[in-house]
Amino acid sequence: SAVAGNGGVVVIEGEAGIGKSRILHEVRRRTRHQRAKLLFFQCTPGGLHSALHPLLQNVRGDLAGNEGQLSAAAVAEAFRHHDVRDPEIIDIFSFLLGAAGADPMLKEIDAEAMRAKANWAVRHSLEALCASGPILLVVEDIHWIDLTSRQLLAELAQSTRHFPALVIATTRLESGSWLAASNPRQISLKPLNREQTRLAIAAMWPQGKPSTSPELLDVVERVTGGVPLFIEEICQWMTENAASATDRLAQTATRSHASVFESVIEARLETLGPAREVARAAAVAGNRFNQELLRALVPELDDEIIANALDSLSEAGFLIRVRPSGVPVYGVRHALIQETIYNATLRKRRQALHRRLFTAVSRNRNLAGWLGTAEVAEHAERAGLVEDAIAQFVIAGTESSSRSAMAEARQILEHALALCERVAAADTRDALRLSAMIVLGPILTAVEGPNSAPARKLYEDGVVIARRRPVAERAKWFPIYWGWWFTDTVMDGERAEVVLSDLRDVKDAEVQLQARHCVWAIDFNLGRHYRCIAAVDAGLSLYEHGQGKANAALFGGHDARVCGLAHRALSMWFVGKPASSIHSMSEAKSWAQQTGHAGSIAHAYLNEAMLHCYRRDFSMLRSVIADLRHLTEHHNMPALAAAAQIFEGWCDGNAGKVESGREKMRQGLGLHGEFQTPEDEPVYCGMLAELLTRTAEVDEALALLGSAVAQAEAGGSRFWLAELYRRKAELLLLQGDAEADVIAALEKSIAIAAEQSAVPFLVSTYQTLQSSGLAPELLSRYRDRVERAKSALEPGAALIVNPESAVRH
After folding, report:
1. Which of 25, 311, 521, 633 has its CA 20 to 30 A from that of 793?
2. Contact of 645 with 664, CB cutoff 8 Å
3. Domain membership flag for residue 562
4. Cα separation values, 116 from 53, 110, 120, 342, 358, Å
5. Which domain holds residue 287?
6. Could you tell me the pTM of the whole model?
């Protein structure tokens, strides 16, 4: 079927040693004349936490002289060898594999967009692989597959039906259900029955050796449970120990199959002398090792003994050579044999071997360049070096996060945090926990959302720990403070003040800048515009070129200077300085473009759109909408796309397309609600209420304004409150509601505008008061304040470009 172009998936499952690999060997033999390509990927226990581990091992290929960091050029060469030449595919996989020289722009893409790109790359790679004819793609032992490989294999499996490709995956029992969407053919291997066992013994029995008796056949069947690997090892042992094997085997008849297998393996190793210790070291080393690495694990043995041991173990069928040429690299022939030897080794001996391996590899990573950082960390953990293990797991989590392997990064870092509980010294435990939290926090905010319970709890716990650390360390733990502020559900300024207070004595310009970054954002949201401008000016004096982009991922996803200039621009408009506002926003946009950082450019565009919205400059707003859409075409930024739709709907509504503009805004707001950016919600609600008023949907507009007011009051986004109350008053007038309600809304609006020094709202609310003919006392109270605000308006640019038409009462 696959040869005809109707590809499919086969999952072979069964217990360890049941014969899955033997079937694969036979499939490979029988299809060699039908297939154009064979691709084989091996999952291993050590690669469970390393993204794309099976692919990485294949790309490395012959490791001679290539034990160092993988390069993008090496990835390209490996892919071209299999006829995958698309530069975009190669760029994506180079990035995912953590190759040196990978496209740095891919770091700017969020995890969900990277996932989509990876899925695209898998589908198009499959197409390229099949271009020259049918392919057989084998993935062995998927019960040990890493999460990224699992995602991509599932995508590939669902795509095979369109191509001449047969995918075969092997797994232990009940570990392959996640491939169900590809509708695979399931092959479940069962233990051999008596007759099959007899045939297996006959096939495996060495030529020239006396055949087994019927009585011995009965014993073999009982103790092996019909598992082919057990049968093979027992046959080998029996032929090596003909005199005593029958009696010893009969004594094991009541023990478990696994226990018997362990006894047989140990009995076979006993006859090999020093090779037994080499086998134990090999079992600890994992699925790949060489003589140089073994020398570090068993320094009591000289090179000649180790070399002879490797030959003996290979001849006995325990080891295989995994590198076809160059310096020999070995592996244990079967994972179950490795597990059995490992488990039979005394715990203290295992720990000592893991400790030696970790120490040797830490000194020289090229000694075992195939080991990823997570694997090195696992050796430290098994050695009982908990603190070293945590440090390595944090590095591994950082590496995974840097190439968008968020699932592995989270898994690794949460394990590191769990390990911290095993550290006895409280001071050391706290420092290690914070080091893991700094890396895990941005992952949780990206994956779960900034307002998610996991992100909030991590940062709340982190700040408790950070605040009991010495003041001299607080610069080091500042990302914890930032995350604690960033994930706050109420923007009342309290946390920003704590951050500033706790860090006031820290002599670090970047920390002081980012602390003020917290402050100016909160001051703006609370409508404290002069304080916002002052915080920006103080912060930007500390800004160092180049640091902003480097720290953008830790601190809000954008450059601090871009953010400061943009917030100063918005606050300048509120205090009646429109020309200065436009100039500052232009600086923000220019600097964002100089950084080349997508998150910073998006931040500048969104704030520029807001400024044009405030000024009701529809022409300029449409220009920025085009910029927003262009950016979302190249980067997956759904929140930006939702904002563009909201702005466009409002522009359309003010250009005579009220109904279609209203619907576009509703759809955009529906999308916007999914992205947890509530600070802009009051502005958007006021814009939609404007269009609803024009379509005579006043009740809905009032309900929307009421919800927006409640949300702004509760969440701390008070900068648009005065306008919401003013618009509410206009609608109450329009409906003919009680004068007291109208006056109350207007009084609330003008009081907030005065308190915030929000000149545009102070003037517009006063004008609404005048046109209503209500509350002359209120007019009198604010007349001088309004006149002073008008006379102080900065010349050079209009505060409002296209004033809104008055609502007829």
Report:
1. 521
2. yes
3. no
4. 20, 10, 6, 40, 37
5. 194-382
6. 0.81
